[in-house]
């Protein structure tokens, strides 16, 4: 920047801040830059002032403050909520009984998973000897190691 523009910037910044314009006659460009930086820094220090606190005249309620003493139970649905009650099973429902399989089924044990010819099987998935690469021998070994249990 040339001296004229630096002088203009110093005057403008001082005017915006409402302070006296510093003496700039006879200063070099570097000294003018330092003077402008000081004005700008003084102005930016004023920006660190916290925002004003709301007064009693404001109609805005303060935000709720949570504390450890608050033992507020969760909201309970009222009769006004139009939420249907959960279905209740009754004896006269036409629900077929669970299918009973004649042969015993084997399932993958809880907390285990197996990769087989059918893909990845997880706990509770039904498994058969034909799913295992190695057939009955491998199936029996998995039974002994408790990767497979009767379901």
Task: Show the helix and strand layout.
Layout: H1 3-17, H2 29-46, E1 106-108, E2 113-116, E3 119-122, E4 126-127, H3 135-144, E5 148-150
Antiparallel strand pairs: 1-4, 1-5, 2-3
Helix pairs in contact: 1-2
Descriptive account of the structure:
The strands form two sheets. This protein has a three-stranded antiparallel β-sheet. It is an alpha+beta fold and 151 residues long. The protein contains three helices and five strands, in the order ααββββαβ. Among the domains are: 3-46, no CATH class; 106-150, no CATH class. α1 (3-17) packs parallel to α2.
Structural class by secondary-structure content: alpha+beta
What's the shape?
elongated
Strand content: 5-15%
Rg over CA atoms, rounded to whole Å, is 40 Å
Q: Element order, helices and strands? A: HHEEEEHE
Taking strands numbered 1, 2, ... along the chain, how are they ordered across the largest sheet?
A: 4-1-5
Average pLDDT over all residues = 75
Main features:
single chain, 151 residues, alpha+beta, three-stranded antiparallel beta sheet, two-stranded antiparallel ribbon, 3 helices, 28% helix, elongated
